[in-house]
Each structure stands twice: as C-alpha cells, then as structure tokens.
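If I may wish for something, please sit down with the protein I am sending here and say whether tokens and residues agree:
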Amino acid sequence: MSVDTQVQRSWFEDVMVPCYNPMEMIPVRGQGSVVWDQQGKEYIDFAGGIAVSCLGHCHPVMVEALMEQANKIWHLSNVMTNEPALRLAKKLTEISFAEKVFFANSGAEANEAALKLARRWAKETHGEEKSEIIAFTQGFHGRTFFTVTVGGQPAYSDGFGPKPGGITHIPYNDLEALKAHLSDKTCAVMMEPLQGEGGVVSPDPEFVQAVRDLCDQHHALLIFDEVQTGNGRTGHFYAYQELGVTPDILSTAKSLGGGFPIGAMLTTTELAQHMKPGVHGSTYGGNPLACAVAEAVVNHISQPSVLQGVAEREQWLKQGLSGLNDKYGLFADIRGKGLLIGAELNDEWKGRARDILVAAGQHGLLLLVAGANVVRFTPSLVITQKEIAQGLEKLDQAIASLV
C-alpha cells in the first residue's frame, strides 16, 4: 500500500470487528480541546475520549514525559520493576487513602483485580461461604466477563453463556434494598461514587455513608469504581474525598494516563497481602511508558489550581446548558459533578440523545450519551472558557437543526 493512500472511513466495515459504530469523520490531529479531521474541519471536544483526555490533546507535560521516557526504556514486564512505576505508585499513595498499588492497562482490568482481591480476602479470612458481591443496577465496571456481569446492565452481559455467580444487583440509592440484601455472606459492595454510563447519577450522601456502615457491620469490603470519576474529574482528585467515605479498594483508569492506556487498583497493606506472587498479574501492567505519562498527568492535575478550576468550568458549562434549555425546553435535569455532567432529556425529547450527538458532530462538536435519554459531557479539565463558549454555540446550532 502506498504511503500516499488516503485512509478511508469505509475501511472500517472492511477490516474491523463491528463492535462499534464510529462517526463518519476521522480525526487526525488534536490540540487542547480542539480536534481536526482529514478534511481540516474543526471540532470542539466535549467528549474527551470518554472522560480520558483530562488535559486535552497533546498537552506539553504529557508529550514531554512520553518523549523523555521513549528514549530510556519502553517495556520490562513484572519480572523487574521500574522507576516510573515506583514513582507513580508512591504519588498515588500520597494523595489517597491507599498504601499499595497494582497497575493494569484499563479500568476493566483494575476492576477485575479489585473483585479478585475481594474474593481472595474473603476466602482466606472468612471462608468459602463469604463470596457474594453486591453491585447496582445501571452500574458499569468494564467489559471482561466478570466486570460486565457485576455491572448492572444486562444488555452488556447477556448472550455469552453462563455468567459468574454470586452477584446481586440492587437499585442505586435504595437504602432499604441494600439493608435487605447485605449480610455476613457478602464479601464486597462495588459502586461508582457517581454513576457515569448509567445516566450521570449522584449518590445520596446518607446512602453512601450507610453503604460504608453496613459493610463494616457485616465485615464486607467497599470497592469504589473511580475509573470515570477519579483523577480530578469531579473537582477532587478522587470523588470519595468529597463524600467523606473511604473505600477499602479503589479502581482508577481513563484519565489516569490522559490518553495513554493505564489502570490501577489502590488498596491497603492489610488487604494487599492476600495478592501473593503468582495470584494475579499483568504483562503490561506498570509499563514504564504508561507510568511516566501518568506520573506527569497526576502531578499536573493534583495541583490545587487545576482542581479548583474544575468547579469553575462546571459552572460555565452548566450555565450554558441551562441557557439552551431556556431557549429550547429539552432538558428535564442538568446534573453531575465537576466535568462529569449529564443533561437528561424531557418527555418531548425522550430517546433522542443519539440524535443530538450525531447533529452535534455535524456542526463541529464532539459529545457523548449515557443511555438513550442523557447527553453526557466529559471535556478536558483545563478546557478554556472560549472553547466552552464555542462548543455551546455549536450545540445550539445542532439542537436548532433538530427542532
């Protein structure tokens, strides 16, 4: 194939497994919160690679870290350790409750490790009977068979044969259902401290506290899936820090690497001892390239000025969405925390979230959905006020085209 051959979108149907239905355009370059396609058309990025591009595209601190490490060493496997992994792990323990870190390549892998640790701990400290995992309907924890089964969306886990057992789903924020199900046979409760894929749903403060108390009462572990909420997304480095409830295990990924694939499971020394050599592992987990980039991302995001800026940007975006709602009357609710925002459509617009996403793309704006009725916004944590204003203008045009 000639190097001059223009890559065509039609190739997707020819050569890719049809798990996805990507947009017709192909992005080729990004800078900050702006992306350009093959034809040079400009797009404002309110999607952030699904809450991944926390510093936007090609941020200097990430580029510099990657280039510096690329000239040192790329891969070792866990037969050896490496400096970037140790520095990153040390940093993550300094800014969280955690004392120990396990590195993986994705949120699903971090959650897989968390669930395996919980089961292992329960077996070794309480016996085989203590194995139930409680999770929540509309939750999302990844696409491995274990994590997709724990996630509370059957459409993602049905159709693959017998599922892993011992998993109970209850409604999010339903305290009475939790009290009715949680028992001494429960080994862990897994929850998002703000549901993302399930519609951008915040937990009631009393519910989160009750989950912690009930776990303590029944000697069960509390696992927080902070794959989407972590790394400054809500305005705190981790969402649990604002909720005032500390989990026993925390998973993080997505924006941890700012676009470079990496995930991590954080926990305590007491729990970590149950993951002895040979019990779990990952060939690429702790990869020097990934950890070097993630270290630069974490160092930048954890600065107070960046975290405080998230709250400011949340207000800019919510105020703009509220103005569009005054104009078009399409949202029943505008909710979320920090720069994980969901706009739920009202009855008149019900089921049209993807229509808005497609129209936005045609008008030069990248968006997300969270189900058929929620438009989701997860832009860069350092997106400028000008870029937010430009994106909202394009969203205005997109909605007008659908009226």
Q: What stands out?
A: The chain has a mean pLDDT of 96.
